[in-house]
Records
---
Amino acid sequence: MATIKKIYWHLIFVCFFVIHGVFVPSVLAKTPQICNSQKDLKQVKLPVKNYNSILEKPILNVMNELNELPIRFPNAISLASGRPSDKFCQPESSISAINTFINYTKKNSSIPVNRLLGQYGKTSGIINEIIAKHLLIDENIKVKPENIILTVGFQEAAALCAMTLFNKNDVLLVPDPIFIGIAGIATLYGIHIESIPYEDSLNINDIQGVIEKVRKAGKTVKAMYVISDFSNPQGSSLSLQDRKTLLAIAKKNSFLILEDNAYSMFRYEGEKIPSIKSLDDSGIVIYLGTFAKTLYPALRVGYIIVDQDIINQNGVLVPLIDEMKKVKSFLTVNTPALDQAIVAGILLNNEYSLIQFNEEKRKYYVYNRDVMVQSLSEEFAGYKNITWNIPHGGFFLIVNLPFNFTQEMLEECASSYNVIVFPESLLSLYQNTNNRIRLAFTNVPADEIKIAITRFANFVKNKMQANNIDKQL
Ligand SMILES: Cc1ncc(COP(=O)(O)O)c(C=O)c1O
């Protein structure tokens, strides 16, 4: 009996090896092997004239560079890009949001769920009513659902403006330096851009002069892009007076304002300032929104509010939004329905408001900002020629150095000092090297912010010493 038992156990043992030693590798052997070596690939060399030469403009490298810096310098702490903290990106919780939206749809819509979430969808979106309620509650913006298009992030909303609004002689005004998303898209579409200087605040008094210059050149200002709250890169906001002045200038000169309010929910001090859209009684503001910071960036959901009519080529008044829908129908067809369902579900679960929903994030970011400011104060105590702003919200602050910070310095700082910081000049249309650095405080935990600022300070101090720059100057 004992021998039979032994044989039995031997058989089980052998079967185990047969299964795991022979069967499993044969399955693995069927896994396609991707080609990792350049020499196995056939290189096709196209003549240079076969691609769009606009892509050679340096400003179009910046977005990729920002995303790739942490990959190129894996040991460095990155203060370069304005991402929300990883800990607040919670895609797992989105499944229940989809279910909330499905239940809501079953009660409120005659469209079957499989069609609504599974088919090609309405170009303008499927959650417009929910977004309109959210905007009324959180931003005091009154908008009809049919005046909203759900977009693939802010970026598609900007592309819709670029492709719908501008003719050959039309000009876009932008503050400079500026969020690279808008400068990049306008450049790609060959739009003529004129800049309004924005150092610590927007030089509102310069706008009229730039408009005259554009007119003299036989062109027309069609729109101006602005970030009303906690701008990228400067971290500052337009005052209420500036918002009203801008509206008056736009009205007088018949151009549109493209308002981007990506950071409005992240205010750390002071009273909320009304958005330009909510102050607009002449219908000249197009509002571009995103859930990249308030929910999470991978969702790629944003929206655009367009409630203007325009005169078409035949002299007929048509809703501008209809023209934008035409463009979107060929650009992305529709914004992914499941992503919209996640946004809608979260809004439904939170009574249409994201203020309380974002309270933990807001507290985390304000703490991080304070740690960064405190670390800068400690590291640069006695350095009168090194200054920084303390933003009342948003994701960034700016440090002014007593020397110009080049792109080579970015590389040196990252490779030798293990910290990635971002020169503001790379976010300018002119990309002239200057002394200003943008630091993001949202994506790195406070203890790492302290280490990163010490490393950055060591770099700065060594550079000053090497160039005989006195700290008291
Ligand atoms: C000013 C500004 N607008 C919009 C966005 C977000 O754009 P998206 O929705 O395309 O991620 C960002 C992100 O960095 C930003 O800084």
---
Amino acid sequence: MENVMVVCRNCKVEKGVSEMKKDPRCKNGVQKICRDCENNRKKKNYELKKMFVNWKKDLEIEKQKVENEEIEQKKAMKREYDKRYREMKLQKKKNEVPC
Ligand SMILES: [Zn+2]
């Protein structure tokens, strides 16, 4: 059993069962992937996950920024509207001045 050699499906290197990823459901009790490749895969997955989390964070920040900008824009629009409204009323009053 210990002398069985398995070719890793990732690096294509023939390795002993003890160097392969253990899995009792598989033939020889190991998967066709060596521990090195499995560790690399885990590391890559971890890095991908980390990247994704960072990306999501950035996205949240961007979203927040846009929301804040929108709020500022709305406030500015409201100010502009109020200003014009006042001007319009003033104009109306002026026009209402009897001759
Ligand atoms: Zn491998």
